[in-house]
Amino acid sequence: MTTDRVTVEIADRVAHVTLSRADKMNALDPAMLEAIVAAGEEVNRDDVRAVVLSGAGRAFCAGLDVASFQGLMADPSSINERTHGRSNLWQRVSMIWHELPMPVIASLHGTCFGGGLQIALGADIRIAHPTTQMSVMEMKWGLVPDMGGMVLLPKLMPADIMRRLIYTAEIFDAQHAVGWGLVTEVADEPLARAQDLAVEIASKSPSAIRAAKALAAIAETDGPEEVLLAESRLQASLIGQPHQMEQAMANMQKRDPVFE
């Protein structure tokens, strides 16, 4: 898929999704929202083992396009409609990455504000350039995070820091974000690092990687009894199956595994 908002390229089992509204710093308008969701749906395929999410130009995503906010003001009640399962369109642009069965790695640079940050939160892993500027910016406009951020933020960072960032809309850098749990690591070439990591993940057992992501999601929300049962259930689904057998055989034969 290639549009004037988002491009998708799939190579060597890795999907590369790029926000491509570079002239607007990938700001979010309705067409951008639709294109991001469509991209997430497109890469939800059995032959995709990892996803790299990045932004073209000077920024990952500068947040909401101001003109779009003006349009939303005309009918704010519309955001109550569940147009995408349990989400509305705005929420789906972040939750779709969180809910994909394969790992998603976000490469961040430039600015990552408001809705842009919430999209990045949907990834499993976030790699940022040292100069990346970030903000939970909704309070600047008299709003609250409403694009899935309040599902994802509490799982990543201390409650008091989260509240401070929401209340103040302060801008912070990637180094602070690492310390708070919002960024996984900092790299001088975040896109290259994200791509290398995606290739490494794609080389592992596809069924085990998907099971690991499913198990991690359960562990984030459920109690010990449910997590222990999920460990057993998912492990039993892997043992003795072709991917697991190929991984074990490759280890013993000291070669790279080959997965269909």
Automatic annotation (TrEMBL):
Gene Ontology MF terms: isomerase activity
Iron-sulfur keyword on record: no
Keywords: Fatty acid metabolism, Isomerase, Lipid metabolism
UniProt record similarity statement: Belongs to the enoyl-CoA hydratase/isomerase family.
PANTHER family: DELTA(3,5)-DELTA(2,4)-DIENOYL-COA ISOMERASE, MITOCHONDRIAL, ENOYL-COA HYDRATASE
InterPro entries on file: ClpP/crotonase-like_dom_sf, Ech1-like, Enoyl-CoA_hyd/isom_CS, Enoyl-CoA_hydra/iso, Enoyl-CoA_hydra_C
Pathway assigned in UniProt: Lipid metabolism; fatty acid beta-oxidation
Example of a GO biological process term: fatty acid beta-oxidation
Superkingdom, natural source: Bacteria
Protein's name according to its UniProt entry: Crotonase/enoyl-CoA hydratase family protein
